[in-house]
Amino acid sequence: MIRMGRSRTEPQEPANSYSQQTQTAPYQAEPTASSPSRAVTDSEAMARDIKEGRLSGFVGHGTVLSGETNFQAMLRVDGQLVGSVSSETGTLIVGSNGQVDANVSVAAAVVNGVVNGDIIASERVQLGRTARVVGNIQAPRMIIEDGAIFEGMCSMLGARKAIEQQAIESARQAEEEESLFAESNAIEIATETDEDDDELVEAAKG
After folding, report:
1. Which of these, 12, 21, 49, 139, is most buried using a 10 Å CB contact count?
2. Helix, coil or strand: residue 4
3. pLDDT given for residue 80 in this prediction
4. 55 and 94 belong to one structural domain
5. Total of domains in the chain
6. What would you report as the CA-atom Rg of the chain, rounded to the nearest whole angstrom?
7. Do residues 127 and 173 share a domain?
8. What pTM was estimated for this model as a whole?
9. How far is CA 106 from CA 71, 88, 92, 152, 172, in A?
10. How far apart are the C-alpha atoms of 78 and 51, rounded to whole Å?
11. Both 178 and 150 in a single domain?
């Protein structure tokens, strides 16, 4: 089992394992204000993101990992991952050269590479223009860019529930409007009856 998460010991900078990996789609480092005159390397940016909990793990180009992978915040795959991938609240990012041969169960998945397996996301799935997915997808939200290849079935989780809830709300609103209309008619009839009674009383007095 492969478990990825924030380490209790601070990562050393730079991390040699990251510096030896080559990436065609380099990790985008966030700007830092601590040393404006010095460029931040990819390995340093990754180490900082791991320390701060933004990046739980990274599978570099040319690296193959097999087994059950669990992570917390974010996992980026530019190599190959085989087995299963799961995270209750995390985001899986598959780079353009990345390949995941596994069933995926995460909060969100952003795919620009290859995924051979089913994807279940509790929040959303995004397929970039270089994505190729062979498997079924279940998610409440989906974004498929022009050029992406998707072979499988798609189920919008929560969509049926939302439609049923909308139907219930519409029926409830219709019942309320009908009830208000009936009450209005009853008041109008009662008013007309009172006016007729007053006219009869006046006629009797005359």
Report:
1. 139
2. coil
3. 95
4. yes
5. 2
6. 30
7. no
8. 0.56
9. 9, 6, 7, 18, 36
10. 20
11. no
